[in-house]
Amino acid sequence: MKEKAVITAAITGSIHTPVMSPYLPITPKQIADEAVAASEAGAAVAHIHVRDPQTGRPIPDVNLIKEVVTSIKSRCNMIVCITTGGGLGMTAEQRLIPVSTFKPELASFNAGSLNFALFHALDKYKKFKFDWEPQYLAMTEDFIFPNTFKSMREFTTIFSEQGTKPEFEVYDSGMINNVAFLIERGYVKKPVYIQYVMGILGGITASPENLMFLVDYTKRLIGDFEFSVCVAGRAQFPTCTQSLLLGGNCRVGLEDNLYLEKGMMAKSNAEQVAKIVRIARELGIDPATPDETRQILGLKGIGKVNF
Question: In 92-148, where does DSSP find H-type helix?
Fold first, then answer.
């Protein structure tokens, strides 16, 4: 275990729809306010998506992103990690615009293609707030989230030009091999930062054995890396705790899980951050500050972003 761990708050994401929780932040103000509150609770990083303020649908609007990230930066020192996953169905060009526009210190980088499935949520939800919600979920039964070797190579070029550190989103073990290939070809330099994304239908399930395997496989294949874990659904806190025990970092937030504990919805991202911080401190681990996180991950610094 380490003495310091990086805590990331994934504020709103593009998975959950408004019917699923009344606490899901939708507007730029809500997203920025949630990020700042998460920072005050101990998160060093805010992972940012934006949504249509009227309907809550994930959209690639750079003006909304600018409103969010500038608001966060004006109020706290936390690291802003902008998504390049975007929303389901966005083009690679749309997904890259925030990196080339805002030059963030950190941005997500999806490390391979997968069947990114949300359609099974329709078994639970029958009535929706907006017409787009059931359509958005249903289309994922026949949807591949594309991250080809060509697009990944192009992403590495843009990231490198902007001095943005990739946060490699690894949904399954084959994607570790993809990252190793990018390193071998010289597109990415070590040490890399990997986030194991567990629990998405189409990717690896969340279990202690699977996380142990992913970490061991990455050690054997790559060697020099930092890792974090995020989990879709109820295994979020147990698996994030395991990550801390293994010397890793962790991500919580309403993008990944809408609950604080069994049967109790999280009313904010900050509640989830406060919970994982309490768990970490019980293990003798303190949350890394934003500046400590910049050192741990080798980031360029907040003075070199374009927002």
Answer: 92-102, 132-138
Fold for 4-304, please state it. Answer: TIM Barrel (3.20.20)
Question: For residues 112-125, b (16+ Cβ closer than 10 Å) or e, as one string?
Answer: bbbebbbbebeeee
Q: Report the distance separating Cα 204 and Cα 229, nearest Å.
A: 12
The reported pLDDT for the residue numbered 149 is 97
51 touches 90 (CB < 8 A) = no
Average pLDDT over residues 221-241: 97
How much is the pTM? 0.96
- Token pair, residue 164, equals 């943005």
Instruction: Please give the full DSSP string across 170-221, using - where no structure is assigned.
Output: E-STHHHHHHHHHHHTTSS-SSEEEEEEE--BTBPPP-HHHHHHHHHHHHHH
Closest Cα to residue 10, out of 260, 255, 198, 234? 255
pLDDT(88) > 80: no
d(CA 18, CA 119): 15
**Bridge partners, 81 (sequence order):** 47, 106
Q: Per-domain residue ranges for the chain?
A: 4-304
Which amino acid is residue 169, in one-letter code?
E
Which residue, chain included where needed, has tokens 């890793």?
Answer: 248
* Token code pair at residue 144: 């591949």
- d(CA 201, CA 145) in angstroms, rounded, equals 12
Integer Cα distance of 3 and 254 in angstroms: 26
Residue 100 identity: S
Q: Could you give the C-alpha distances from 90 to 120, 136, 142, in angstroms and in order?
A: 21, 12, 15
- Tokens representing 80 are 């802003």
The residue count for the chain = 307
The answer to whether the CB of 26 falls within 8 A of the CB of 12 is: yes
